[in-house]
């Protein structure tokens, strides 16, 4: 008798494993057969009394194993089937139904471009330096080799603080060069992003506030070739690996020699002609070797150290990238404009 019930239990375990269940009816049938009040397992519990004493324990353990197997299979199939039927739980709530859409904000296009620029330069060892927007004329102009009679200092171009002749809103991020050079020792390798202000008539092409990124690299033996290679690397990371650059001689009071860098944009479409004024080249940034006077003004020995600096407008890059034709759109906070950048990191 004992041997028979053992076979029965093992068969039962096998049938639990073998049971194929693909819908609710089959699941109900499974529950009735293996877990219901008239289930085979229940009746087998009643057989314990007939099992030989020395095997009772073994039989009990086996029965528990069968019961547990049935329960586990039932529970996991139940969860699985609920998932397939849209998760209708007993409470009538559909737990998988999509919720009310939550509007996810978007990054401002200026931030998107700035983050890319920071990423590109941080990969070659530049760190970010941020400084004040309200400056004094020494850091903004004098230290940067811009004499008092320079037209850039004119009230026409510069916003001075009320009743002040020395406190102003910085007109370029080059003021950060002076701040860093007077507070750090070379080697210096920084980029400085931030807002700048100029007293300009607001139009589709210029604004009284915009953003720049400044770059400064100072060490022993830094050459023009180092600057060129750094800027070529930047242009290719920013505009694609085939991008070509050219440097045109220019003038800035704080660099000598100075240059403006263009990238080759192409001349395929009518837009290309308009944007590049028919040349195919686009001006991206100003740059040059830091003028020895600037180094001296900031307490760095020009006989020992040399360096390069560059500065670029961020809105300009964003306008090119996203084909924005009016700079004012960056400052109007029009959600219809800004939401176009959602999903861009
Ligand atoms: N400060 C310059 C500008 O605002 C850009 C520049 C920065 C040029 C550094 C050369 C070196 O136009």
Structure explained in plain terms:
The mean pLDDT is 90. The protein is built from twelve helices and nine strands. It folds into two domains: 2-84; 109-341, Bira Bifunctional Protein, Domain 2 (BirA Bifunctional Protein, domain 2), CATH 3.30.930. It is an alpha+beta fold. A hairpin with a 2-residue loop joins β6 (245-252) and β7 (255-264). Helix content is 40%, strand content 19%. The relative contact order is 0.11. The chain is elongated and about 115 Å long. It has helices at 2-18, 24-35, 40-46, 53-84, 109-122, 137-142, 174-181, 224-239, 270-275, 292-297, 314-322, 335-338; strands at 127-128, 134-136, 167-169, 188-197, 209-219, 245-252, 255-264, 281-290, 306-313. Bound molecules: phenylalanine. Residues 172, 174, 214, 252, 255, 286-288, 309-311 line the site of phenylalanine. Phenylalanine (PHE) binds next to β8 and β9.
Structure keywords:
345 residues, BirA Bifunctional Protein, domain 2, two-stranded antiparallel ribbon, single chain, 2 domains, 40% helix, binds phenylalanine, 12 helices, 19% strand, alpha+beta
